[in-house]
Write a structure and sequence with these properties.
The chain is of the alpha/beta class and 336 residues long. The chain has a domain of 220 residues: NAD(P)-binding Rossmann-like Domain (Rossmann fold, 3-Layer(aba) Sandwich), CATH 3.40.50.720. 40% of the residues lie in helices and 16% in strands. The chain contains eleven helices and 14 strands. It has a seven-stranded parallel beta sheet with strand order 3-2-1-4-5-7-11, sandwiched between helices. It has a three-stranded mixed beta sheet with strand order 8-10-12. Helix 1 links the parallel strand 1 and strand 2.
């Protein structure tokens, strides 16, 4: 819905607007001339490159009162807020944010008569990672076969969305693979670029799916405007070996690519060392026991459903995505 000249009240609410994906989504909405309201716990710095102003409102998805205030007059909700962590010390908070927070968003959307909700889930919610198999949206969750605390919280969050659907809420879910973009490279998937910049020498033989944050944002907006309802969609551009990912990043940054293969026992030493270093850092280590095990698996994701649902939509090739973002990070680091 594009606002008229005399109606500048945002009809769109974005949770998680200060995160990597939320930032790309707000920019994509702005380029369409759409005003959005976004929650923030601490006021973000103004972005002079933002194509249109964003109405930042204080709030938290764990604070029902502030969420109700933010939902006033809203007809469309993009729920991007989530906590991604593979560190045991974050599990309790991650459950609150990802599960209880999603329940709060769904309940508020029902109370305020929101037209549609687009919920950002994850491929981690699709069930057990099937080594060597192609993963599709219809895969079934198995509690006993899934050891990922993060994946479990995203699965439970999806159940909250399904509850909302049963109570009359129009909603769709997207399941992105590893999202690549320019953000705080101490956190989340952006830390992959940090490791390449620091010439992290180790690689594993595993593979996974990756996708451009801009493509995820574009697909979400198109799904919001579509008739899609009560479905979930894998958003993943291509499936690459981890070694190729880090090699492409390193070469684009003018750094040495990974050159030491990590066997299972060596990976165990490396993740334990990274965990020890993480005790002295405010940021979670990128490599943990869980991520070390995941990095050894050959996992591939099928994106056929989203391509069939959105004619004309296409994912940007990963070679371009990694090259462009690696160079942006290089410029940022060179200027710092």
């Amino acid at each position: 819905m594009t606002p008229t000249a005399d109606d500048t009240t945002p009809r769109i609410l974005v949770t998680g607007g200060t995160g990597l994906l939320g930032g790309y989504l707000l920019q994509a909405l702005g380029r369409r001339g759409l005003r959005a309201r976004a929650l923030h716990r601490s006021r973000p710095d103004a972005d002079p490159q933002a194509p249109t102003p964003v109405e930042w409102v204080p709030g938290d998805i764990l604070d029902i009162g502030s969420l109700d205030d933010a939902m006033q007059g809203i007809t469309e909700v993009y729920h991007c807020a989530a906590m991604v962590s593979f560190h045991p010390r974050r599990r309790t908070l991650m459950h609150r944010v990802n599960v209880e927070g999603t329940a709060n968003v769904v309940n508020a959307a029902l109370r305020h008569g929101v037209r549609k909700l687009v919920h950002v889930s994850s491929v981690s919610a699709l069930g057990r990672k099937r080594d060597g198999q192609l993963v599709r949206e219809d895969v079934k969750w198995d509690d006993e076969a899934n050891l990922s605390a993060y994946g479990h919280t995203k699965h439970l969050a999806e159940l909250e969305v399904h509850r909302g659907i049963a109570e009359g809420l129009q909603a769709v879910m997207v399941n992105p693979s590893i999202i690549l973009g320019v953000g705080d490279w101490h956190r989340g998937s952006a830390a992959l670029f940090r490791n390449a910049w620091r010439e992290f020498p180790w690689y594993t033989e595993g593979s996974t799916g990756l996708v451009d944050a801009a493509d995820v944002a574009e697909a979400m907006i198109r799904l919001m405007d579509s008739t899609a309802h009560a479905e979930r969609f894998i958003l993943s551009a291509e499936n690459w070996p981890y070694r190729r990912v880090f090699t492409e990043m390193a070469l684009a940054m003018g750094k040495r690519p990974p050159h030491r293969k990590a066997s299972r026992w060596m990976a165990g030493i490396v993740w334990r060392w990274e965990t020890l270093k993480g005790l002295l850092s405010p940021f979670d280590p990128l490599l943990t026991r869980e991520t070390a095990e995941t990095a050894r698996m050959h996992v591939a994701y099928d994106n056929a459903r989203i391509l069939a649902r959105l004619p004309g939509f296409a994912f940007r090739p990963l070679t371009e995505v990694i090259r462009d973002y690696s160079r942006e990070y290089s410029v940022k680091m060179g200027a710092s």
